[in-house]
Design brief:
The chain contains 17 helices and ten strands. By secondary structure, the protein is α/β, with parallel strands linked by helices.
C-alpha cells in the first residue's frame, strides 16, 4: 500500500442517524461496481468514526478484506434494528434510568438528602454490548491490518475526566501519535469499550471508563469538542477523504410563527445535539477548503516549505431534514420510551431533532438507508471522479463503440 495515494473514510456521529451512512456506502459501492471498479478488499485504506459512526467504521474495518460482505452485514443490522438492541426499552429499565433521572432533575436536593444512588443517564445502553459483540470480529480486524487490506482504523471519544478529546487508532504502520490543543492521539488495540465510549451521547447514555496511561478516565461521545473531525484521517496518511455527514450541512433556518411557544426540554436538547454532531463538521470542511485554495495559489517551492498538503474531499450529507423524517416514525418506539420522551416533549414535531438520534427502529432506519442510497446515486459523477474511475476506459469495446 506504500507509494500510492490513500483514501480515507470519515463517518460522523448522530445516534440512529448513522443508518444514513450505510445507505450512502451502498450507493457508492453500486456506482463503482457498475463502472467496472472490481476490487474485493475495501476501497478505503483509512477508516475513521465518531459516535455511532465509530460502530459502523469498526464493523466495516473488520471486513476490510471483503468490503461488500462487511457492508451487507452492517446493512442487515440497521435494516432490522430495534431500540431494545441499543438500550433498555422495557418498563422496568426505563423506570430505573429515565424516570429516576427526570426525578433527580426535579427533586435532586431531596434525593441527595436521602443519599440515594442517582442514575447515570437517561437511558441504560447495556444491550448495546451484545449487539457490538455480534457485529464485530476483532481478530479479523487485526488480520486485515497485518496483511495490508486496511492501513488504519481510528475511533474518537471525549474524556469527561481530563477534559480532552482523544483519537484511539490501530495500525501496523509506523505512525507517531499526534498532540494538538485539547486533543491527542493514542495508539493501541481498539475494543468494545472504545465504541461504547465514543457513542455515549451526553446525558442520554452513561459514560464509559477506559484506562489511559495507567489512569482511569470516563469518556463520552466523541463528537463533543471534536473541532476537526477530518484530521485523524489526514494524520494517518489519507490523501483524499470521503466524509459522510449525519445532517444537512447548510441547513436553512426553520420558519417560526410570530409568537413561538417556549421551547420544550426535548427541543433544547435536540438543538444542543445538532450543535455537537453537525456544526464542527461544517466548520472543518470550510477550513479544509480554505487550505486547499491557499495551497493552489502557492508555487511549488512555497508548497515545499509548508507541512500542509492538499486533500481531495468528497462530502455526502442528507438532502432532507432528518428530524422531520423522525417525527413520522417516533410512534414506532416502545411504549415505555414514548412515555419517557413524551414527558420532555420529544413526541411533538418540534422535538423531532432529539428523537432522530434515539429512534433505533427499522421503519426509520430503513428510510434513512434509502435516502443515503439516493443521495449517493445523485452524486455519481463526483463519486467516479473521487475514485479516479474512467467508465469509458473500463467499458468493453462494444460499449465504447456504442457510446461513440
Amino acid at each position: 500500500m506504500q507509494g500510492r495515494k490513500k483514501t480515507g473514510l470519515v463517518l460522523t456521529g448522530g445516534g440512529a442517524r448513522a443508518a444514513y451512512q450505510v445507505g450512502v456506502l451502498r450507493g457508492v459501492s453500486s456506482i463503482l461496481r457498475e463502472a467496472g471498479y472490481e476490487q474485493k478488499r475495501s476501497p478505503y485504506d483509512i477508516i475513521c468514526g465518531t459516535s455511532a459512526g465509530a460502530i459502523n467504521a469498526t464493523a466495516l474495518a473488520c471486513h476490510a478484506d471483503n468490503f461488500d460482505e462487511g457492508l451487507q452485514k452492517v446493512l442487515q443490522v440497521w435494516e432490522h434494528i430495534t431500540a431494545e438492541q441499543v438500550y433498555r426499552a422495557d418498563s422496568l429499565g426505563v423506570l430505573r434510568s429515565g424516570a429516576r433521572w427526570l426525578s433527580l432533575l426535579s427533586f435532586g436536593w431531596l434525593l441527595r438528602k436521602w443519599k440515594a444512588n442517582p442514575p447515570n443517564a437517561l437511558l441504560d445502553n447495556t444491550p448495546l454490548v451484545t449487539l457490538l459483540n455480534r457485529m464485530l470480529n476483532f481478530p479479523r480486524l487485526d488480520a486485515a491490518l497485518l496483511d495490508g487490506s486496511l492501513h488504519a482504523l481510528a475511533i474518537t471519544a471525549s474524556s469527561y475526566s481530563a477534559g480532552r478529546h482523544i483519537t484511539f487508532f490501530q495500525t501496523e504502520a509506523q505512525i507517531d501519535p499526534w498532540v494538538r490543543s485539547q486533543r491527542i492521539a493514542l495508539r493501541g488495540q481498539i475494543g468494545v469499550e472504545h465504541l461504547l465510549a465514543s457513542s455515549a451521547i451526553p446525558l442520554i447514555f452513561p459514560a464509559t471508563p477506559i484506562y489511559c496511561d495507567g489512569r482511569r478516565e470516563y469518556f463520552g461521545d466523541g463528537s463533543m469538542r471534536q473541532i476537526a473531525p477530518i484530521s485523524p484521517a489526514i494524520h494517518l496518511g489519507a490523501d483524499k477523504v470521503l466524509v459522510i455527514g449525519a445532517g444537512r450541512l447548510n441547513e436553512q433556518w426553520s420558519e417560526t410563527s410570530e409568537f413561538a411557544p417556549y421551547p420544550t426540554l426535548a427541543q433544547i436538547a435536540g438543538h444542543a445535539m445538532s450543535s455537537i454532531f453537525l456544526d464542527s463538521l461544517a466548520v472543518d470542511i470550510e477550513r479544509m477548503s480554505r487550505i486547499n485554495l491557499t495551497l493552489s495559489v502557492l508555487t511549488e517551492e512555497q508548497r515545499a516549505r509548508t507541512p500542509l498538503r492538499p486533500i481531495d474531499l468528497l462530502i455526502i450529507a442528507p438532502s432532507e431534514r432528518l428530524d422531520e423524517t423522525a417525527s413520522r416514525h417516533v410512534h414506532s418506539l416502545p411504549a415505555p420510551v414514548r412515555m419517557l420522551l413524551g414527558a420532555i416533549g420529544a413526541m411533538e414535531a418540534r422535538g423531532g431533532a432529539l428523537a432522530s438520534y434515539l429512534l433505533f427502529e427499522s421503519s426509520y432506519t430503513c428510510e434513512l438507508i434509502e435516502l443515503g442510497h439516493k443521495d449517493a446515486l445523485a452524486r455519481r459523477a463526483d463519486v467516479l471522479a473521487f475514485f479516479g474511475v474512467d467508465e469509458k476506459a473500463r467499458a468493453c469495446p462494444e460499449q465504447i463503440l456504442k457510446a461513440g
